Each structure stands twice: as C-alpha cells, then as structure tokens.
Amino acid sequence: MITKLNNKDIKIANLILNVQLPAYKVEANLINFEGIPQLKDNAKSITDSNEIFIGYMDQNELMGFLAYSETEDEYQICRLVVHPNYFKQGIAKKLVGNFLNNIVKTKKVIVSTGSENYPAINLYKNFGFKFKSKIEVAPDFFITLFEI
C-alpha cells in the first residue's frame, strides 16, 4: 500500500533512513561514487526536510519511498529508494506510477540520477521521461537530468 509519510515524526524519519541508507549504499557501489548527499542524512535532516514523502508499506514495514518537491511550475522527484531486501519486486515502479497518476497534475516533472545508474534510467524512460542534460557534479562524476 502506498501512503503519505510524515517525515516530521522522528519514528517515521528513522524508518525512512533505514530504507534510504542501505539503498543509496548499493547505488554508490553501482555508480562508483560515495558522494551521494543522501548518504549523509540523519534523522534530523529527514525531519527538517520540506520534501513530501510517500511510502510503499506492507504489514507496517516501509519497503521503499519516493520524495518530491513542488513549485508553481514543476514537481521534482528528489529521492526514489527501495530497501535492497525488496529489489526487483516492482516497488519503485509502483511508487513512480502512483506519483504520476495520483499526485502530478499538469506540471512538468524533473528527476536526476547518476549517469551510470542504468536501472533508474530505464525505469524513468519506461514512464516516458526524456533526456534533458548531463551535468558533471564532481570530477568525472555525472548526473543525468530527465523531464516529462
């Protein structure tokens, strides 16, 4: 079940971290870059975040989540993570589908990911996201921006 998460609640913030940190560690290894900012998050940075979090829950266990921000002109997917124990079960696909079908209105949606993160790139392309640009954010490390 997909539900809104109250990241201001310290217990929920810790659940978020328990999914986020192992997921981003896998991504860091995949893209060979340890500088992913979300690896530095802690409970306070999660509770202080102004992002909106939706989570995939099963029997009160958070298995994955998507966090986004919204401006007058666009939505931005800020985080999309699934705990490594639940990889390849379609959870990320369900989260993105829910977000696009139930939250996004007429505004554009932007997202970025490591340029070597092929599973994420393929997921976004399957939802119709189009390549916008590639940016070097650290020496020899690039992120790719997509938009729909």
Summarize the helices and strands and which ones pair or pack:
Layout: E1 2-5, H1 10-31, H2 43-48, E2 52-58, E3 61-70, E4 74-82, H3 91-103, E5 108-114, H4 118-126, E6 130-138, E7 141-147
Parallel strand pairs: 4-5
Antiparallel strand pairs: 1-2, 2-3, 3-4, 5-7, 6-7
Describe what this molecule looks like in 3D.
With 148 residues, the chain is of the alpha+beta class. It has a single domain, classed as 3-Layer(aba) Sandwich (Aminopeptidase). The chain is built from 4 helices and 7 strands; from the N terminus they run βααβββαβαββ. Strands 1-2-3-4-5-7-6 form a 7-stranded mixed sheet. Strand 3 and strand 4 form a beta hairpin. The longest helix is centred in the first third of the chain and has 22 residues. It is globular, with a radius of gyration of 15 Å. It starts with a strand and ends with a strand.
Kindly identify the CATH topology.
Aminopeptidase
Q: Helicity, in percent?
A: 25-40%
What CATH first level would be assigned?
A: Alpha Beta
Secondary-structure class: alpha+beta
CATH superfamily label: Gcn5-related N-acetyltransferase (GNAT)
Order of helices and strands: EHHEEEHEHEE
Task: Please tally the β strands and state the result.
Answer: 7
Residue share in β-strands: 35-45%
Kindly report the spatial arrangement of strands forming the biggest sheet. 1-2-3-4-5-7-6
The overall number of domains is 1
